[in-house]
Amino acid sequence: MARSLPLEALLHIFSFLTDDIVSCAGVCREWQVAAERTTFSTLLANSSNLEDLRRIVGRTSTPWRPSFVRKLDFKCILPAYGVHARSRFEDENDRSSNDKAFTQSVTSLFKVLSSWSDDDRCKLELVIYARSPGDVESEPDWAKRKIRMQKHQAFPDEDLLWARYGSSYLHLTEEAHLSTAKCVVELQVHGSFPYRELSPRSVSEILEIVDLTPIMIGPELFWPASASKNIPYWPNLTKINVRYASATPSGTWLFERDPRWRDVSPGRYHTPTWNEGDPPGEKNINQFRTMPNRELNELYLAAGRAAQQMPRLRTMILWADIRCSGDGLEEVINAISDHWFQYTSSSARATWVCTSEFHVAPEVREVWDAVAKSHGQSHITIENLGFHVGPYESASPTEYYDDEHGFDEDFKKEYGCFSWDS
Ligand SMILES: *[C@@H]1O[C@H](CO)[C@@H](O)[C@H](O)[C@H]1NC(C)=O
Ligand SMILES: *[C@@H]1O[C@H](CO)[C@@H](O)[C@H](O)[C@H]1NC(C)=O
């Protein structure tokens, strides 16, 4: 009886089951395989149970399983710290042991994943984030978590909570040897609050889609500082979407205060505050930093060089995590509060949308023209747009942007679109 049901029918039936599916898997081999297509589609793993992952989803022991995994959520467990350590900021020693643990577990993870990769059907989305058992979010009991937060409010110096590691950025160390895991076609890195900040070296060659949001980046995400060797190549990348903080990991600001702010009477707006231990990309201070500085053209230059090494690239979106907040701000900015860039290869268009004055440097134009040519187009169309009026009901102008045609003409007219370059 069980055998006579076609696989499609079984899959359909199993898709309605939740807990019972485990007992179905015990009926016979066909049912097991069909049930596992559901039960193994999303897996959670962490650095302490990688060995189980390797055993349970082994390509030799269970050759059918790797291709069932669609999504793997991986938590990298950083070294624990005790109650006393909650009162002090992470120092170089902490950072170095965190980097070591991070590198070790990501390396081990990729080793497991590379063993799945011989199966061409195996294509998965990998989500990576990092936490220490000492971090307040690691406390599973909400009541206990609340007590810790209340304690922090009463005695902030005794438990710094996030501020303890807010200025630390995890790196893969030199010892990182990431095996090629061809099965990872989409990587999501939760590299920011409420997770640990991550500064991942690219796993460029394997990826089809890169979605890094939000993350701290510098030009070296795309292009090494000494470009003579290790030129990155991204043969399979079709889509890259990066939402980045307003400072680089090396501490350089990408955005300055817009001089138009000087005209604003003080006191009417929130004063930016800066506390010891706040990460460099801390939001409060960002609200005035909307104007790109020179460094940003460096970022676009590096991104354009990298894009020429992405033969299959369809879209690249780089979106700065800047916030203009404060009452009455619209009198000053009077526009979309964003700094956003999109390149689309099929329409050979590079669009910038900028709240504050920005000029696309000539070498950036050249590089992106070369990108369009590398994608078989005759030349690039560059738009560098500002808006006199923002569509305040919407979070971002991207909703009005069409990959093929750019912004709708009516939309541009309605919101007072102009070019920063004219
Ligand atoms: C790691 O995963 C195992 C098995 O799911 C779980 O028991 C353990 O609590 C996890 N460890 C952490 C720190 O999340
Ligand atoms: C990525 O590109 C390389 C070289 O072009 C190719 O051999 C490989 O099969 C691709 N991997 C995936 C997952 O598409």
TrEMBL record:
Name the UniProt key words of this record, in alphabetical order: Signal
- Asked if the Swiss-Prot or TrEMBL record annotates the protein with the keyword DNA-binding, the reply is no
Keyword Signal appears in the UniProt entry: yes
- Do you know which SUPFAM superfamilies this protein is assigned to? F-box domain (SSF81383)
Which segments constitute the F-box domain? 4-38
Domain annotation DUF6546: ranges: 292-383
Per the record, a Pfam family?
DUF6546
Task: Give the matching InterPro entries.
Answer: DUF6546, F-box-like_dom_sf, F-box_dom
Q: Where is the signal peptide?
A: 1-24
Name of the molecule in the record: Uncharacterized protein
Question: Which organism does this sequence originate in?
Answer: Penicillium arizonense
Q: What is the lineage of its organism?
A: Eukaryota, Fungi, Dikarya, Ascomycota, Pezizomycotina
